[in-house]
Amino acid sequence: xxxxxxxxxxxxxxxxxxxxxxxxxxxxxxxxxxxxxxxxxxxxxxxxxxxxxxxxxxxxxxxxxxxxxxxxxxxxxxxxxxxxxxxxxxxxxxxxxxxxxxxxxxxxxxxxxxxxxxxxxxxxxxxxxxxxxxxxxxxxxxxxxxxxxxxxxxxxxxxxxxxxxxxxxxxxxxxxxxxxxxxxxx
Length: 186
Description:
Layout: E1 5-7, E2 41-43, E3 50-53, E4 58-59, E5 85-93, E6 97-105, E7 111-118, E8 134-138, E9 151-157, E10 162-170, E11 178-185
């Protein structure tokens, strides 16, 4: 019987929102223990859920990467679920594991979650994603609006370990609002 390991991190790494003259949020600086990932991608390192606010993220101007055949994360017809602010996290996924990410938003906040699984020497970050091993997304596929409802998705590693990027995105127009991200490796 395999034990379930809860993996995540409280954002006590100095990942805070700072406003510039334009009023736009500055992406978090998670450069501590970040390896080859950009500084705005926060590491997931321990068993605590991540509590964050979309106001610390950034809106991606282009979502075409997700609909490309070498990525196939979510179809362009579902972009409305991902047009808000994005916050990004990374974790190493060992072989023979299933990684599950659940984003649980505060009441009235509409979020989606996605997982990009890539080789251990790749560190691609949206919108600059050209090819991945696997991408899965959790979002409201029926009504494109379910504020306050949790979204979950999973990826499996069989014989190889992977670099994994997890994104939590607000729906169209959702650029602030709290959520908790829980990540498990089974």
